[in-house]
Amino acid sequence: MKLYMENLIKEFEGRRVLDIRELLIESGALCGIIGPNGAGKSTLLNLIAGLMKPTDGSLLYGEEETAVAPFREMTMVFQAPYLIRTTVDKNIAYPLKLRGWGNAQIEERVGELAEELGLTDFRKQKSWKLSGGETQKVALARALSFRPKLLLLDEPTANVDPATTAEIERMLRKINEKEGTTVILITHNLVQAKRVCREVLFMNQGKVVEFGAAERVLRDPEQELTKRFVDGELFT
Ligand SMILES: Nc1ncnc2c1ncn2[C@@H]1O[C@H](COP(=O)(O)OP(=O)(O)OP(=O)(O)O)[C@@H](O)[C@H]1O
Ligand SMILES: [Mg+2]
Questions:
Q1: What's the CA-to-centroid distance between 209 and ligand 1, angstroms?
Q2: Is the CB of residue 10 below 6 angstroms from any atom belonging to ligand 1?
């Protein structure tokens, strides 16, 4: 799903934390958002997710450039996801029930996702008994269940071990390639951005500093600020 933003501004109590002049994320992008703490990354993702309203400007979705967030076609995965207090199966099935899928279809889709994410042995387990990495995989399976056109992830592997991180990364690449899902991922892990993303957006102090092919932005940035960030130099 294509996204287009123009003069997008978010202020909290008069303080401007996001100010994007123009940004186009093409349909089918696999885009990483990087930048220091407080840069406005989560604010941007929350605006796209429709979880908060911009102070000003426009944010348009899809080829028709509608201003209404298409909630049924998009979803978000958080760093500490909230699972429903029931089994893994029922968590993954939840968006499908909401969308009126039949039981046989639901069973097939849940089985398929559980298998792909190595959750088969946990299907009947209660969600509160899962480890952090398992919880994150269930949240991802639930998010993918209905084949969203847009998947937003806010530091989905921040508390996850390398093996589980690799599984999650593989899944993101796969749905992007095979199903054309547009994926936008906030990460503090630049190696992950390089491994997973095709495009990278570097934000600082609420602004887009640089946006382009991941390889180029991470290896050979145009902006001095980006260069300092990817070189690991601290700045404010
Ligand atoms: N609900 C809110 N009320 C007031 N200020 C907020 C709110 N949400 C975010 N902010 C402020 O907006 C700025 C951007 O925050 P945001 O969470 O988008 O940053 P971030 O880039 O995601 O940072 P991090 O890497 O630490 O997650 C911060 O200075 C933050 O304090
Ligand atoms: Mg954040």
A1: 17
A2: no
